[in-house]
Hints:
Layout: H1 6-18, E1 22-27, H2 34-42, E2 47-51, H3 57-72, H4 85-98, E3 101-106, H5 108-114, H6 118-130, E4 135-141, H7 144-151, E5 164-167, H8 185-195, H9 199-205, H10 211-218, H11 229-237, H12 241-252, H13 258-265, H14 269-281, E6 285-288, E7 300-303, H15 306-314, H16 319-323, H17 327-335, H18 339-358, E8 366-375, E9 382-391, E10 396-403, H19 411-424, E11 429-436, H20 442-449, E12 454-457, H21 458-461
Parallel strand pairs: 1-4, 1-5, 2-3, 3-4, 10-11, 11-12
Antiparallel strand pairs: 6-7, 8-9, 9-10
Helix pairs in contact: 3-4, 4-6, 8-15, 8-18, 11-12, 12-13, 13-14
Amino acid sequence: MFHCREKELHTMGRRYERGKFECIIIYGRRRVGKTALINEFCKDKKTVYFSALDSSSQENLEALSKAIYLCKNPDSTSELAFRSYADAFDEITAMAAEERLVFVIDEYPYLARAEKSVSSRLQHLIDHRWQDSQLYLILCGSSMSFMEYQVLGYESPLYGRRTAQFKIQALDYREMTVFYPDLSVEEQALLYGITGGIPHYLNKLEVEDSLDDALLENLFCTSGYLFEEPENLLKQELREPAIYNSVISAIAGGASRANEIATKAGLESGVCAKYLKVLLNLGILRKEFPVTEKQGKKTIYAIDDNFFRFWYRFVPRNMSVISAGRIQSVYDQVVRRYFPDYMGLVFEKICRDYLLRYAKNLPIAICDIGQWWGTDAKTRKEVQIDIVGTSVEGSEYLIGSCKYRNEKIGVEELELLRRYAAVFRKNGVFHYYIFSKSGFTPALRDLGDKGEVTLVTLEDLYKN
Length: 464
């Protein structure tokens, strides 16, 4: 069943109805749902769907030929192949001259690497033959850097030929609730913390009666689809998966600065930097630095992909009991107990997304939001603020604290937030927000009623 992406489908459909030439670029990390989006769009439309192969130019030409013949005659079993890409594209041109035709090249980076001239060839066709045709061209790819630099970039032959582009992102914490609507809000939050809103992982987790049962069957089990997913993805994407695995493991183990990661992974700093860059491009890692400050000495690295972060946190250290088929007791007694701790950073992300996308009547128009950390000059201790939102203009700030605990949050949290805000800025107008999984004490609620702080529960985050 297809969920979400209504905005993308609407835009793609509106452009299709115009009947003019279109060149749509769709890209995003693997497993995010690009192919599912394209398949949903192509339903009931005349389509040549060609999924490029990580193979030779000739094998890709043969696969393209089959896709064209299949579109012309769905019952055909022809093994004929066009003699050249020029002949294959001539056939596409002829087909689009007669009727509206969708031509999809999925995993376009594979084709571009196998057939070096293809981007220039497509540029020439767009400029001289397809511009006045009924062709609806879709180029799709999972290699983020390739699509951004070699397709959309200024130096690409295809630069300026696109008519629309879609960078497909993971679903946010509210959007993904349509997959398993009967789960409680706490279970929905944990599910987001595990899958990161990646549709493929949501589907493969196959939650039926219990989220715990689904995890034990599909992730903490050697026969489960998700058990080896991170390792398989690294092997699929990278030439040296073992080294990348060491870098990710170092970060999962607590290393956050470049030199710490290099030392823990057993790499030279310059070499490690190259591996970090690749993982950033894949969307597995992210760089963080205090909001309002520029990237510099305070820059740290974190695992951006929730599924990778969850897997590296809980699977490797329990590999022996998983392999022995004894994970059930360990899961109940140990693994489950650490979920609230793991969910701390996830909860912060949910709260930031809430403020950016769903919160109503905010005191400021937020232009940037993130964490902030720095040193208190008086105590010489480092302080960290979970959420700092900056305003479009002026010196007003939204200062927030996020607590994913099984206890009510009291007045002392507001007092701490005020002290930290004074370290962040001596002068400024501060609007305080406290987010809590388990609610607030009566005393803090009284201050909320007086307008001194805005209090938001986990249930509030999921209310429309």
